[in-house]
Design goal:
The chain has one domain. Helices cover 85% and strands 0% of the residues. It is built from 4 helices and no strands. Helix 1 runs antiparallel to helix 2, helix 1 runs antiparallel to helix 4 and helix 3 runs antiparallel to helix 4.
């Protein structure tokens, strides 16, 4: 698969993942859940969707790929530190300038982390 096609599929999967992640984060935090656990809830929901979409379509070499436990373990090795960084950044925004600004900042934080994620997923997780 060409890098352009793979990048396009990654962006499409990422947008679906981001939408779910952001929606869960906003709903949980609007319901009174603190920013850090709300962000974690959103990231888990997005992670499950993203792992499946990227394993099945984005990084499938010549056809659908089995996503399996080995790839999932590698995926967690990428996802956990990125989630810790995301949670720290979103929580800092929420505590310093407010929850509404954290809702706005979250997509920007996740977009920046997506670049790192793409490189690590392509080279290590779904190789």
């Amino acid at each position: 698969m060409t890098p352009l096609r793979q990048g396009s599929l990654f962006v499409a999967a990422g947008l679906a993942q981001l939408a779910l992640d952001w929606l869960v984060f906003v709903l949980l935090s609007a319901a009174g859940v603190p920013a850090a656990p709300a962000n974690l809830g959103g990231r888990v929901a997005g992670m499950l969707l993203g792992f499946w979409l990227n394993g099945r379509y984005t990084f499938a070499a010549g056809g659908p790929t089995r996503v399996g436990w080995v790839r999932f373990a590698r995926f967690l090795g990428v996802w956990l530190p990125l989630t810790a960084l995301s949670t720290m950044l979103v929580s800092c925004v929420a505590s310093s300038v407010g929850l509404a600004q954290a809702w706005l900042a979250k997509p920007m934080v996740e977009a920046a982390l997506a670049v790192v994620s793409f490189l690590l997923l392509r080279r290590w997780v779904y190789r």
